[in-house]
Structures are given as structure tokens and as C-alpha cells.
Specification:
11 helices; 69% helix
Amino acid sequence: MAKHLRADETYQRVLRSAAGLIAERGFLGTSVNDLLERVGLTKNAFYSYFSSKEALAVAIVKETAAQWPPLITAFKSLRAPALDTVIALSFEVAALCATDDLTRAGVRLSVERDTIKSPIPPPFHGWAEEIESLLSPAGDWELMGLAAPADVAARVIVTCLIGAQYFSTGDEAPVDLPRRLAEIWTVMLPGLRPTPDPSARIAAGQALRDRARAAAAAMTSMTTLLPVVPRRSVD
């Protein structure tokens, strides 16, 4: 068991170290030798984890995509107004893109998927459907009264998310992404549903993001404090 845990820890370390380099330089701008130097492995050791640079890219994108469903579920569980939930999710993704190399690399690789031989899904794959379900008038806890159909609104929102992320890579620091999102929502909100003060709706979404983070931190703390029950030995 300990051997498997060590192997898994090494895999995650290699994955995240490589992701940091790809997030900075992109897929074509990163060579295998660059990756070997960054992760501190020999070529044979590296290839024992990933058969090629393309396989590494696929693994990074899959690891990034795996975090979206539980993230969306956690925000939906707060049962806040649907539009606030969508805004909160967008700012949480922006925070991840600013602070987490794996997320940045995963999104960047999805944007650059045409340069990768292995099949890579588009960025934020499945998000349009999730947002549409949130914004749908048939939603469980809010009738939206949107100025645009829910599917159209969802596609526009995801397109803007992709664009904001794309323009935050390269010369611009990813930390600028929250400001870009605030600008996007300020323009989009009146078109989605007339509101007298877009900034108030944006602030509500950001406050909801803080609530979700606090709830996640509390859950983590409770899990940490739970007593460990010794397993009975079987004679």
C-alpha cells in the first residue's frame, strides 16, 4: 500500500510540475527536455508515467476537468439565486486559474487543442449544459425571467469565460482575470436580465463564492477532526 501511495504522490508531483511549465509556455513552447528539467526525472522515469508529451497533455486536461463536477455541485447545493451561482462559479474558476498551475495548464491546453495530436476536449467542456440547467425557467428554486433563452445565455457566458482566460495568458498575468470577469458581467448582466445595478449582482455572486469556500473549509476541518477508529483484527 505504501509503495502505491508513493507512486501516486510522485505521479501528482510530476503532473503538477509539468503543468506549471505548460501553463507558462504552452504546449508547443514546451519540449520534453524542458519537462525533464522541471520535474527532475530521467527520460526513462518520465516515460514510465507518460508515454509521450501528448499523453501528459491529456492527463493534465482530464485532471483539470475532474474538478468541475464536484465544484459545480458544491455551489448548487447552497441553493442561491441561479444567476448569483453562475457568477460565483465564474469567479471561483478565475481564482483557480490565477493560483493553480494545473487548472491554468488544463484550460490552456484545451484552448490550444488544435496543436495537439491526441484528442483534447474544448475548454470548459460540459459547462454550457450545466449553466443552461441553472438558468432554465424550469429550475428547481428560481424562475429566471431571462431576456435571452437559457441555452443562448449559457453559450455566451461560457464563450466569455474562455475568452477571458485566453486573454489572461501570455504577457498578461492570470491574476488580472477577476477584473476582466467583473467587466464582462457588467456588460452582460443587463442583456441577460435588466438590473438597476450590475455591480450589486456581481458583489452578490462574489459573496456566494466566499460562502462556498467557507463551507468547503468547514467540511475539510470536520473531516480532519474525526477520530480514527482502529480496525479490528480478524482471527
